Amino acid sequence: MGDLEHGEGFSTRRIAGLEVLSAGTASDRPPLLLVHGAWHGAWCWTRHFMPYLADAGWAVHALSLRGHGGSAGGSLNRLRLRDYADDVAAVTAELGPAVLVGHSMGGAVVQRLLCRADRPAVVAGALLASVPPRGVIRITTQVAREEPAVFAMANLTADLGRLVASPEQVRNLFLSDDADDGLVASVHQRVQKESYLAFLGMLTPHRPRSRPDLPVFVLGAADDRIFTPSEVKATAAAWNTSAHLVPGLAHDVMLDTRWREAADRLLGWLDGVT
Question: Where do the DSSP E strands lie in 11-142?
Fold first, then answer.
């Protein structure tokens, strides 16, 4: 299955001008709000995670942050992580107390929102292959070393889309070597530019200071080429919890070949905290 378009079983609406995809039916469980990472949109959750979580009895929602997917946003490069956190706050306020699930940059956004005094009511947070407390300095240095010309042009032009311009780059960053070529092609077709200011915000280390008394789940991918297992463990330590590492899984935990194990671990945690 290579198509990443959302179809039957999903509804689409706009909340605060943002694209929000939904699956499943309301119950006495809190809704799940899925927050995508850099270069992605709500579409990344529709192939596996949303139908799987909905089939398990959860009402599942995924937003496209402003400037991503089907959400308007003006000049993308002017957007900061706090703008993205405002987006998640607006959708959460509409949905009611929710479990926030953030992937990669979305994990950084969720962490910042959880620490805000003005955040809406939140039940818990889950961080999947999330930006670690030390930020993206290590992976940025690695990309600069591996693709110096591309990295230089991306910075000179403030165009981070250059880092995901080819299927080979997409596979290397997000997916396993054994991922189907059709999946790689589909992801490559859907990824987009990312905000340069948001990237700069992720370069700055961020450790939870006024950490809320909420359950937090941290999951990482053992074969992630962006965030290492030690960085996943650092994220868990920052939230006084333990790290769950899925072997053989790459960065896009919701799309990669072993996505089901990641989803099952998330479901196991959800059943224990809600």
Answer: 11-15, 18-23, 32-35, 60-63, 98-103, 122-128
CA–CA–CA angle 19, 20, 23 (5° rounding): 150
- Indicate whether 2 belongs to any domain: no
For position 103, which CATH number holds?
3.40.50.1820
Query: No. of H helices and E strands in the chain?
Result: 10, 8
Task: Report pLDDT digits (tens) over 100-151.
Answer: 999 999 999 999 999 998 999 999 999 999 999 999 999 999 999 999 999 9
Residue whose entry in the numeric block shows the structure tokens 């919890």: 241
For residue range 81-104, list pLDDT tens digits in order: 999 999 999 999 999 999 999 999
Answer whether residue 201 is part of any domain: yes
pLDDT at 20: 98
Report the C-alpha gap between 155 and 150 in whole angstroms.
9
* Inside any domain, residue 1: no
The answer to the question of residue 186 being in a domain is yes
Considering the entire predicted model, what is its pTM?
0.95
Q: Which domain holds residue 113?
A: 11-268
Number of domains the chain contains: 1
